[in-house]
Design brief:
Blueprint: H1 4-9, H2 18-27, E1 31-34, E2 37-40, E3 49-50, H3 73-89, H4 103-114, E4 130-131, E5 134-135, H5 142-150, H6 162-179, H7 186-200, H8 212-223, H9 228-237
Antiparallel strand pairs: 1-2, 3-4, 4-5
Helix pairs in contact: 2-3, 4-7, 5-6, 6-9
């Protein structure tokens, strides 16, 4: 099993891979791959996010307020995909140890991806949000709950087995997804974080091709304490199955 010690001693540096970001976008139903080309297939609607008095959207619409002052949802989505893809690819990691992968780092990754689009990139949300029947962490509890979750990461360097590592990773991903600390862009930022986390653990990650439905269902299963679907995805992404 790859070790943190071996990866650190060889000064391996994480480098984002375009195929991973394309797959990450596809998990949200934003792009599809056909003949080697990406194409927008749907507009991500903020109507799925249940909020009262949403200070992050333009009044009377589900369009997120943005630095470009774009009021059309489809146009904003296209620009966001383009700008965040460029930001993802130009990311230069300085992470060499697990203890660098904390909540501040997740905030930095979110800021890096979305800085060109949203003024609140990298900032903890100021409202409560929910999707379907899932209420995410109350905004006033995000910081203390994050502290508990991120404190578990250093222990990932000493699993007793690969199965234990996968189980811990699946649990951590599920809990951090429920934290949902940002108004939008949580999924992409979290998967980006896990790419760097798994690289630091000695693994090259390749997100498997999944439908948006299968990705969502795996996360919903995790909410209901069934981590097997997420564990299976992570195991495949790490090349273990």
């Amino acid at each position: 099993m790859p070790s943190v010690a071996s990866s650190s001693s060889q000064k391996r540096i994480f480098k984002p891979r375009l195929v991973n970001y394309k797959t990450s976008l596809s998990y949200e139903g934003l792009v599809t791959e056909a003949n080697g080309h990406s194409a927008v297939v749907s507009t991500k609607s903020n109507s799925n996010v249940k909020v009262n008095d949403d200070i992050y959207t333009y009044q009377g619409s589900g369009v997120l307020k943005n630095s470009l002052n774009i009021r059309d949802a489809e146009e904003l989505q296209n620009i966001e995909i383009s700008l965040t893809t460029e930001r993802y690819l130009c990311y230069q990691s300085k992470v060499t140890k697990l203890n660098q992968l904390d909540f501040s780092h997740l905030k930095n990754l979110h800021f890096h991806l979305f800085r060109d689009v949203y003024s609140w990139a990298g900032e903890v949300r100021d409202i409560n949000i929910a999707k379907r029947d899932t209420l995410f962490c109350l905004f006033g509890r995000i910081e203390p709950e994050a502290a508990k979750l991120f404190s578990k990461i250093p222990a990932l360097s000493n699993p007793t087995s690969t199965d234990e590592l996968i189980e811990k990773l699946a649990s951590l991903f599920c809990e951090l997804n429920l934290l949902h600390p940002f108004r939008d862009g949580n999924g992409r930022a979290l998967r980006f974080f896990f790419e760097e986390l798994l690289f630091t653990l000695g693994y090259e990650i390749h997100w498997p091709a999944l439908s948006q439905h299968d990705w969502i269902e795996a996360n919903i299963a995790g909410v209901h304490q069934d981590l097997e679907p997420l564990a299976s995805i992570l195991s495949e992404a790490m090349g273990l199955k």
